[in-house]
Amino acid sequence: MDAKSFRKELRKNQTSAENSFWNLVRANKFLNLKFRRQHTVDKYTVDFHCPRLNLIIELDGSVHQNLGQSLYDEQRDSCLKAKGYHLIRLDNDAVLNYPEVVLEYLKEIIEEGKLLR
């Protein structure tokens, strides 16, 4: 399967947290920012990418607590940060149960971190 087909399949089979987050940010709803979902950045497919801010948002479920997965995540995060990307990891449960809190948290990081240009 090529990368484009893989991304399309991921979008079609997104988790409930990914679907919920996408509904919060799609169509420039959040701070008038454009987000792409299941987007290829460098050699990785990331959950959400905001090109304007060089921001990557990853939603993590229980699989990310697995030692092998957490080591892979650390390596991947280091690689992306070294290339100038800002990376934020959010817990699936927080996105599903406290969406307003998650958006406020992101807004603070973006505004206080001076990511908005």
TrEMBL record:
Keywords: Endonuclease, Hydrolase, Nuclease. CDD domains: Endonuclease_DUF559. SUPFAM superfamilies: Restriction endonuclease-like (SSF52980). Pfam families: DUF559. Residues 3-109 form the DUF559 domain. Transmembrane segments: none annotated. InterPro entries: DUF559 (IPR007569), Endonuclease_DUF559_bact (IPR047216), Restrct_endonuc-II-like (IPR011335). The keyword Transport does not apply. GO terms for molecular function: endonuclease activity. It comes from the Bacteria. This is Very-short-patch-repair endonuclease.
